[in-house]
Automatic annotation (TrEMBL):
It comes from the Eukaryota. Transmembrane segments: none annotated. This is glucan endo-1,3-beta-D-glucosidase. Belongs to the glycosyl hydrolase 17 family. Keywords: Cell membrane, Disulfide bond, Glycoprotein, Glycosidase, GPI-anchor, Hydrolase, Lipoprotein, Membrane, Plant defense, Signal. One of its GO terms (cellular component) is side of membrane. It comes from Zizania palustris (Northern wild rice). It is a lipid-anchor; GPI-anchor. GO terms for biological process: carbohydrate metabolic process; defense response.
């Protein structure tokens, strides 16, 4: 459907306008990441997308089972290319042609509605130390040429999702926006490419990170209900940081002679656990505020009209790197098992339209806990917790988290259970040198959920490696990884694809 505002449209009257607005508001997309120990079957997730009315999905890779499940679904797809493939694709035409044949053409031929290829993910983050500066743009050009050669040049656009720090404003006013000085020339080459091919500029926008990193950041400016600290920019008053951030990019594009390049918000969202300010109340407030904002169709001060955006994210990922913070594993609007976390209306009204995943099968109703007789002063208890938390997920423990109210024994039990579930309730994973025992009584209290993991799906390609106690090499590798990841750099939404914690 084409939304026009000329004489013909006027003749159709309000109906068309309403239909167009409905289309904008229904047009929200979502990111589907897969760094999880127990992924739901791809078909279950595709059904979840359809049940919830998502008509667009953004992927970080081109996994065969996922693209296979999206065939015939009617869901528009942005496929991703991990950063570690950029150098190979930049090197010559052959690699890109192979990639397009295997990861685009094949799936398009099987009814997958691929609209975009995202070449790399936030490759210009300063924390990457310039690793991808020389290869990202050549890789985009190679993939573009390969798509044209495959006859898909018109239907599949090449772009690159960029972190919002590729543009900035020296004064803080959006209208003074420009691209970062150290990559200015490169950004212009990329924007020129996007303009020439009709592809969008994809930017990831994170008000949560602004708040997380700056205790003086005005809380209400992160949301959409008006701010006591608005930013006044000439005749425009910015009441929320999303609009200001978005319009800083609009201004950067205008300043450099590309006022018409379209913008897609590649990631936007709010996490629910792990640190202060990450909780379901704020996540609901932010996401609902954002969805209502874009459903209104008013756009931003410098770009009135529809906003094209992908929420981050669909489902929690328990194996994401937590180097940026413990919140990293809690961005989902759904828990690991496809249950909604809080009421949310994707249409932008104040109801709830979220539908849980259907037909999820769980492991047995059994948990692993610290034996009541265990002595907390025993050195083996601390060792067990370190071991469990190094390999499983303990990011719901700690100050201002969902399990922050547990006592010391509760903490230990939480860690043991997390490890036990991650290992598919293998008996050997509930031993901890005799300190642990299984129970059929749910230890969950209040907001603290002791999970039961999802049963491994038969035939799933994305089954995570299973580890059991005593696998010394794995523990050592994980420990070294944790040490390696510790550092001063901020790296949200970075995906360490090949770390030993994630995939073997
Ligand atoms: C297709 O994509 C997958 C996932 O990123 C990758 O492992 C594979 O190498 C790609 N195929 C080709 C021929 O490049
Ligand atoms: C970037 O450089 C810093 C300082 O030299 C180093 O500590 C860090 O590990 C590097 N990061 C990456 C991703 O290479
Ligand atoms: C990128 O290219 C420049 C200029 O040729 C070179 O100095 C730099 O080392 C290259 N960077 C990387 C990460 O390869
Ligand atoms: C942008 O679009 C407008 C309206 O279609 C057009 O008049 C203008 O020439 C375009 N500008 C550029 C730089 O392409
Ligand atoms: C939703 O509720 C909030 C807070 O009560 C209100 O400000 C907002 O206008 C409502 N939005 C819609 C679309 O009803
Ligand atoms: C529970 O564990 C968390 C995270 O390690 C810690 O901050 C907290 O102090 C512990 N609580 C008790 C009562 O030991």
């Amino acid at each position: 459907m084409v939304c026009v505002s000329n004489g013909a449209a006027a003749a159709l009257g309000r109906l068309l306008v309403l239909a167009c607005m409905a289309r904008w508001s229904a047009g929200v997309g979502v990111n589907w990441g897969t760094q999880m120990s127990h992924p739901l079957p791809a078909g279950t997730v595709v059904q979840l997308l359809k049940d919830n009315g998502f008509d667009k999905v953004k992927l970080f890779d081109a996994e065969d089972d996922i693209l296979g499940a999206l065939g015939g679904s009617g869901v528009q797809v942005m496929v991703g290319i991990p950063n570690d493939m950029l150098a190979g694709l930049a090197a010559g035409a052959k690699a890109a042609e192979d990639w397009v044949a295997k990861n685009v053409s094949k799936h398009v031929n099987h009814g997958v509605d691929i609209r975009y290829v995202a070449v790399g993910n936030e490759p210009f983050l300063q924390t990457f130390n310039g690793t991808y500066l020389n290869t990202t743009f050549p890789a985009m050009q190679s993939v573009q040429a390969a798509l044209v050669k495959a006859g898909l040049g018109g239907q599949v656009k090449v772009t690159v999702p960029l972190n919002a720090d590729v543009y900035q404003s020296p004064t803080g006013k959006p209208s003074d926006g420009d691209f970062r000085a150290d990559i200015h020339g490169l950004m212009l080459a990329i924007v020129q490419f996007l303009a020439a091919t009709g592809a969008p500029f994809v930017a990831n926008v994170y008000p949560f990170i602004s708040l997380h990193e700056d205790p003086n950041f005005p809380l209400d400016y992160a949301f959409f209900q008006g701010s006591t600290a608005p930013v006044v920019d000439g005749g425009v008053t910015y009441q929320n940081t999303f609009d200001a951030n978005h319009d800083t990019l609009v201004a950067a594009l205008r300043r450099n002679g590309y006022p018409n390049v379209s913008i897609v918000v590649g990631e936007v969202g709010w996490p629910t656990d792990g640190v202060t300010n990450a909780n379901p109340q704020y996540a609901r407030q932010f996401n609902q505020g954002f969805l209502s904002h874009i459903a209104s169709g008013q756009g931003t001060p410098l770009r009135p009209g529809p906003v094209d955006a992908y929420l981050f994210s669909l489902i929690d990922e328990d194996q994401k790197s937590i180097e940026p913070g413990n919140f990293e594993r809690h961005w989902g609007i759904f828990y690991y098992d496809g249950k909604p976390k809080y009421p949310l209306s994707l249409r932008g009204d104040n109801g709830s339209t979220l539908t849980p995943a259907r037909g999820v099968s769980y492991l047995d109703r059994r948990w692993c806990v610290l034996k009541p007789s265990a002595n907390l002063a025993d050195q083996k208890v601390g060792d067990g917790v370190s071991y469990a938390c190094g390999l499983a997920d303990c990011t719901s423990l700690g100050y201002k988290t969902s399990c922050g109210g547990l006592d010391a024994k509760g903490n230990v039990s939480y860690a043991f259970n997390s490890y036990y579930q991650t290992n598919d309730q293998d008996d050997r994973a509930c031993d901890f040198r005799g300190l642990a025992t299984t129970t059929t009584v749910d230890p969950s209290t209040g907001t603290c959920r002791f999970i039961i993991d999802i049963a491994p799906s038969s035939g799933a390609a994305a089954v995570a490696p299973r580890r059991v106690a005593g696998d010394v090499a794995a523990v050592l590798a994980a420990f070294l990884l944790l040490v390696k990841l510790k550092g001063p750099n901020r790296k949200w939404a970075i995906r360490f694809r090949d770390s030993p914690l994630h995939k073997s």
